[in-house]
Amino acid sequence: MSKLHSLWQRYLADGVKEDTPPDEKNKIYITRGSALFLVLLGPIFLGVNVAQGYSQLALVNLTSTLLGLICLILVRRKIVQGAAVLLVVGGGLLFFFSGLIFHNGMEYTLLLGMLGAVFMFKSLPARLLLAIVNGAGFLLVKILHFEPHASERFPLPRYALNLLIFLLCYFLILEIFRSVNRNYQRAIEQKNSDLAQSRRRLDEEHAELIARTSELQVANQTKERLFSIVAHDLRGPIGSLKSSLELLSSNDLTTSEFRDMMADLKTGVDGAYECLDTLLLWAAKQLREIKPIFTDVSLESAARDCVALLADIATQKNISIHNTIPVEAHVWADETQVSSIFRNLVSNALKFTPSGGSVTVSADKNEDCWRVTISDTGVGMTPEQVRHLLESNNVNSTVGTENERGFGLGLQICQEFIKNNGGALSFESQEGQGSSFHFMLPSSLNG
């Protein structure tokens, strides 16, 4: 029985979408169900009436079957309103004449027509009109079939009045049921809407939680890898400095010997300082504590300060640095972050450029932006290195041409700072041919 009920429900709801309005659903369900009954029962009564010799009544059964088929086809083709009107009006006329001519009680089917009219049509005038037509047909058949001898016990006017009152009450009760059903459906729709909104919020929160969990996992992996690099790369130069100072303080190392070691110690300490500075910037970026303060920034001045800061490293490696940025190059950006971008990119260029090479810092105007280029004659990169270079979780301890150490965080920080200042970073590199890094920043009114 449950399978039969399930099949019936699937048949009624075939092609009905979840967002279909309740009134439209009722219209489809009632029209499709009623039409199916006509199609199924019509042939049965047709056969019975033919066997019993009621050829005219059999014609009515054939007509009702065709009416049901037409209604089903109209519903299938999404002409639901036309099918509903045809079913109520056509079926009402057919069963009115059947009950009137053959006295077979089919006039009671007009009461079902009133029920269908109430629940299938949203417009109150349409419901009233169809209810009046079906009710009038039922009343007319009952009055015309009134037996004359019955008037002796119960007069015809009173009989007609009782039927009229019954039809009015019947219609009002149907309207009440319709109103109750409509309110119930609205309450269910509201609950479903609330549940859908709650589910969407839960899905959004779940997606956000997954994203944060993923970010946290990446951050933890980066942190763990970073600390392992810190332990390895910073211990060496600081340990050497500590040992040298202990030897010097214990008079096991002469001043001249310490002076001879100073160049190597300074290189190690400079590398450690650069790594610590990069690490602090990375940590602040992870905590989202660095916010740009926009002002007019001279690119030529920022590049000049950077070249002066890294001059000792360039001299030790016998690398020439050329700053060809024009004086009129000004951008609207955060001055501290621009300085950090220059320092990281030029420092990387020096790190991977062998002795005797050169690093060039230049800039050219590109519409309302300045395009800065830091190019070197260094070792360049392989395609695999290029592919992994800008990965957000790529943290590696890289070694320069003279064993300079780094965390691989500088380029990530540059990329973040350039993005924060409304720019973009790009680069090209070829193994053995050097690399060129470009970043664009919006020009200021002075540039």
Structure description:
There is one protein chain. This protein is an alpha+beta fold. It has 3 domains: 2-145, no CATH class; 234-288, no CATH class; 290-447, 2-Layer Sandwich (Heat Shock Protein 90), CATH 3.30.565. 66% of the residues lie in helices and 11% in strands. The protein is built from 14 helices and 9 strands. It has helices spanning 2-12, 22-52, 55-76, 80-102, 109-120, 124-144, 156-233, 235-249, 255-286, 299-309, 311-316, 335-351, 383-389, 410-420; strands spanning 294-298, 320-323, 330-334, 358-366, 369-376, 398-399, 405-406, 424-430, 434-442. The strands form 3 sheets. Strands 2-4-5-9-8 form a 5-stranded mixed sheet. Strands 1-3 form a two-stranded antiparallel ribbon. Strands 6-7 form a two-stranded antiparallel ribbon. Strand 6 and strand 7 form a beta hairpin. Helix 2 packs antiparallel against helix 3 (55-76) and helix 5 (109-120) runs parallel beside helix 7 (156-233). The radius of gyration is 45 Å and the shape is rod-shaped. The model has no long low-confidence stretch (mean pLDDT 80).
